[in-house]
Amino acid sequence: MLSIGTKAPWFEGTDENGNTVKxxxxxxxxxxxxxxxxxSTPGCTAEACDLRDNYERFxxxxxxVLGVSRDSAAxxxxxxxxxxxxxxxxxxxxxxxxxxxxxxxxxxxxxxETEGTIRTTYIIDEHGVIVDAIGKVDTKNHTAxxxx
Length: 148
Known about the structure:
26% of the residues lie in helices and 31% in strands. By secondary structure, it is α+β, with helices and mostly antiparallel strands. It has a seven-stranded mixed β-sheet.
């Protein structure tokens, strides 16, 4: 994981609507940037819905929320529509953002070592500095972890 106190790596990606989203779009605002393995899977849905259910709390505290996975924009659109997610999701099909945020690599699933998305969340402050990093995400209670 990236270290707290370091500058967040620059990124540019495409959201579910084909719009370009860059780190600089969030200058002057706090950002919850979360990385997750796959749309519409149980853990990823629980995490997204927890963030959705608490979205107004994030907005009231001055945070934007942005999710990133390797799924396509079309997959993200379906995920957002199905679960009425109020935030954007970036389609990182080339793994550039995932790798720059150290959210892609070797992991063990069901006792087997694989390469894939490492569920990770970063909080980036108004100046583009990482102020918190969560590697052991509680998908059902992620908001509580973030707003501790």
